[in-house]
Each structure stands twice: as C-alpha cells, then as structure tokens.
C-alpha cells in the first residue's frame, strides 16, 4: 500500500533522522537524508504555491517530480513565476546539491566527504527555515 505524499512531514522526518545520523558520524546516510529532506522541503513550498499533484499527492508534472539536484533550478523558476521570489532570498545561488545523488545509497561506507555533507546540511537547514516560514504564513 502506498501512502499519499506529505512533503512537509517527510521533510521534517528526513531532517530529524539526518541530524541523528550526523551526530553519530554516520555521514553517508546523514547526507542521503539531507538531500531528501531538502527535496521534500522544496516540494512542500511548491505545493503551497499551487504545484499540481495527483490523487496520491505526487506532482503531476515530470519536472516537479525530480530529485533535489534537478529540482533546485525548477524550484527557483516555479517560485519566481508565482510571484514569491522572497522565498529565494536566503537560498544559496546555484544548487548546493549538484554533487548529491539518490544513487549514493549504493555507495560504500566512508564515501561522503565531510565538506560535501556540511554543505548539504547547511542547505537543508536553510530549506527547513524556508518551510517553517511558509507554514507560519499559511503556505507550506
């Protein structure tokens, strides 16, 4: 059984688990979850701004269903087109997840560099604040 998508809840869950793994120096899995946390956070904001989804809550447009490296520029364009560019002001320019891949789940232990993990963690933290602000404004 597939549960309906809930991007904001998934974003928070992945962030919390990533932080637990980061604290235990489990960088590979922490990094993986920072990427998914960021992806779900961006999709939560897009949903609040009118992204169309199907009955299961998944994006109907293929470009909106991407993983975070490919979703980042789509997010920027989507938000600007909705007149909500204020949501972009705290985001780093260019995707900090350009070197992140969902395929890294197959990588050997120890392949995630601390610099890369820290960059992904900081970007996910910024997205976390973005989602929190959007929720406070009533547009998660």
The gist of it:
The chain is an all-alpha fold and about 140 residues long. The protein has helices at about 5-25, 25-50, 70-80, 115-135.
Task: Walk me through the structure.
This protein is mainly α. Helix content is 54%, strand content 0%. It has 4 helices and no strands. Helix 1 (7-23) packs antiparallel against helix 2. The two termini are 26 Å apart.
List the helices and strands and how they pair.
Blueprint: H1 7-23, H2 27-48, H3 68-81, H4 114-136
Helix pairs in contact: 1-2, 1-4, 2-3, 2-4
Keywords summarizing the entry:
140 residues; mainly alpha; 4 helices; 0% strand
Globally, the shape reads globular
Main sheet makeup: none
Indicate the structural class: mainly alpha
pLDDT < 50 stretches: none
Alpha plus pi helix count: 4
How many strands appear in the DSSP assignment?
A: 0
Query: Approximately how much helix is present in the residues?
Result: 40-55%
**CA radius of gyration:** 14 Å
Instruction: Report, as a whole number of angstroms, the end-to-end distance.
Output: 26 Å
What string, H for helix and E for strand, traces the elements in order? HHHH
Please tell me the overall pLDDT.
Answer: 89
Could you tell me the strand content as a percent range? under 5%
